[in-house]
Amino acid sequence: MRKGEVQIRRPGGKPGAWTVHDIAQVAGVSAKTVSRVVNKQSGVSEATRARITQIIEDVGYHPHMGARIMRSSPRDCIGLTLSAPPNEVPFSQQVIQRIFAELYRIFGAKGDYVCLDLNPFRRNPNADYARGLWEQRYGGCIVSGPLAIEDQSIVRIHRSGHPYIALGRLTDFPETSCATVDFEEGAYLSTRFLLERGHKRIGLLQGFGRYHSGLERRHGYFRALAEAGIEPDESLIRPVTFGSRDIITGVHRLLADHATTALIDSSGAEDAASVRDGARRAGRVPGQDCDIVAWTYTDNATVLSEACAHVWLPLDEAAVEGFDLLADWFHGLRDGPIHVVYPPTLYETIRSDEIPKPRPFFDVLR
């Protein structure tokens, strides 16, 4: 049994979501008592409240809030939720606007409702970001953002049968309905490119350390090193957040060892200023005494003009295709799940003022 799965059986072995009456039967109380606990009302002893709360947590029960409001099927409402707290994965305003524009084109313009749950972690950083489905506020959902290593919400969504798509995937749950990029291949291409340039000691500035996309980066990096017969060195991997100081420190510590002659910036921050500052503090000059491969989410863009190459991660393009396919699933025109995984592209950097800077996918926290 996977971690987090329900072990308490629903009374009568009935399929489907748990109800107040089911909770009451297991707890040996009335449905009214359970309702009081759910709604945080008085009139329930602390011992009984604790017992009911524990059962609710164990079975993953969520009140049917949508029924209270609409008293109708949410089948015509698609939800958008975030799989990571904004302070950990700070999507830029431009990204939110692009997603909103696509949701309007695909769903809103056709008369569907769109429900946005943009901060399900406000009260609890470990909250279930799929609460909108369990409360029946919408009949299908888009999960925007990376999936945590111990994520169980996406597995529950998948098993519920609701149409959904995640802009990320689980390495240990390949059934995930997803529209994303092959980050492992991006790290593999980056590492192999630098190995072919003669580098043996390559640092990895790793973004999304708590998430599966971070694991993909490690796997691709290790795969390329193994093919070259080089033993991985954990000291050459620096997990970083979207904080500018953290990126500066990560680059500094990797390049302070002058035996390290190359660096892969897979932070996802697209923050040239911080990379340059970190290199400067280490007494290094990118493009002269060290090679850097920078990652970007914008096609034909230059994050760092001194970089020897860039890797383009077409996450926007994958998301648009995924949204279109999800709409067909949502409207009963196709079956799910959906698997859209775009390959990354590595291109050598051309020093030119005509090459545009990337559209920031995430905000760097200064």
Task: Briefly note the CATH topology name of the largest domain.
Answer: Rossmann fold
Rg of Cα set: 23 Å
The ordered string of helix (H) and strand (E) elements is: HHHHEHEHEHEEHEHEHEHEEHEE
Strands, count? 12
Large-scale geometry: elongated
Share of helix, binned: 25-40%
Supply the CATH superfamily name of the largest domain: Response regulator
Task: Give the secondary structure arrangement, pairings included.
Elements: H1 20-27, H2 31-38, H3 46-59, H4 65-69, E1 77-82, H5 93-106, E2 113-117, H6 131-134, E3 140-144, H7 153-160, E4 164-166, E5 178-181, H8 183-196, E6 202-206, H9 212-227, E7 237-239, H10 244-255, E8 262-266, H11 272-281, E9 291-296, E10 309-312, H12 315-330, E11 339-342, E12 345-348
Parallel strand pairs: 1-2, 1-3, 3-4, 5-11, 6-7, 6-8, 8-9, 9-10
Antiparallel strand pairs: 10-12
Helix pairs in contact: 1-2, 1-3, 8-9, 10-11
List descriptors.
366 residues, alpha/beta, Rossmann fold, 3 domains, 6-stranded mixed beta sheet, 12 helices, 12 strands, 35% helix, 15% strand, elongated, disordered N terminus
Can you walk through the features of this model?
With 366 residues, this protein is α/β, with parallel strands linked by helices. It has three domains: 19-55, no CATH class; 68-181 and 316-342, Response regulator (Rossmann fold); 183-314, 3-Layer(aba) Sandwich (Rossmann fold), CATH 3.40.50. Helices cover 35% and strands 15% of the residues. The chain is built from twelve helices and twelve strands. The strands form three sheets. The protein has a six-stranded mixed beta sheet, with helices on both faces. Strands 2-1-3-4 form a four-stranded parallel beta sheet, with helices on both faces. The chain has a two-stranded parallel sheet with strand order 5-11. Strand 6, helix 9 (212-227) and strand 7 form a beta-alpha-beta unit. Helix 1 crosses helix 3 and helix 10 (244-255) crosses helix 11 (272-281). It is elongated, with a radius of gyration of 23 Å. Mean pLDDT is 89; it is low at 1-6 and 65-73.
